Each structure stands twice: as structure tokens, then as C-alpha cells.
Amino acid sequence: MKKIIFSGVQPTGNLHLGNYLGAIKNFVELNNKKENECVFCVVDLHAITVTQDPKKLKNNIRETVATFVASGINPKKSIIF
């Protein structure tokens, strides 16, 4: 039976060990299980609950997606948006 997993992170631009161990490492493990269909997102609208520099936010969104892929999330197996 397939499991659908949905999760996301804010594009803070502050990737650190806590982000990796708390979220991204788990995303990769979930992505690698055959029984899972995963949807991972960058919650950019949630990030604007505080004042943001639009150019910096755009860059942070791209960096967050790049981190997903660089960490091992396969965009051919999981949806990333």
C-alpha cells in the first residue's frame, strides 16, 4: 500500500545541522522507500509572515530546493515545489 508523504520547510537561507538532521535527512529516507509517494515543498508564503527582502527570499527558495536535491531527494521520484 502506497503512503503519501507531504512536508515542507521555510526558505530561511540558514541551512544548518539542525535543519539537516531534523527535516532533510528524514525527507531523503522517506524518498528512498518504495512504498512512499513524497511531496516536498518550500513554504515561501509562510516565510512572509515576517518582513523579507524579495531578492533574498527568491535566492533562499532556490537554495532550499538545491539543498533538497543535493542531499539526495530524487526529483524524478518525488514532487518538489
Task: Summarize this structure briefly.
With 81 residues, the chain is an alpha/beta fold. It is built from three helices and three strands. Helix 1 (17-32) links the parallel strand 1 (3-9) and strand 2.
Task: Describe the protein's architecture and organization.
The chain is of the alpha/beta class and 81 residues long. The mean pLDDT is 89. The chain contains three helices and three strands, in the order E-H-E-H-H-E.
**Secondary-structure element pattern, one letter each:** EHEHHE
Tally of strands: 3
User: What's the end-to-end separation, in Å?
Assistant: 24 Å
Low-confidence stretches: none
| Helical stretch tally | 3
Q: Using the CA coordinates, give the radius of gyration.
A: 13 Å
Describe the main β-sheet briefly. Answer: 3 strands, parallel
Would you tell me the overall average pLDDT?
89
**In which order are the strands of the major sheet placed?**
1-2-3
User: Which structural class do the helices and strands define?
Assistant: alpha/beta
- Helical residues, percent: 40-55%
Strand content: 15-25%
Q: Please tell me what the overall shape is.
A: elongated
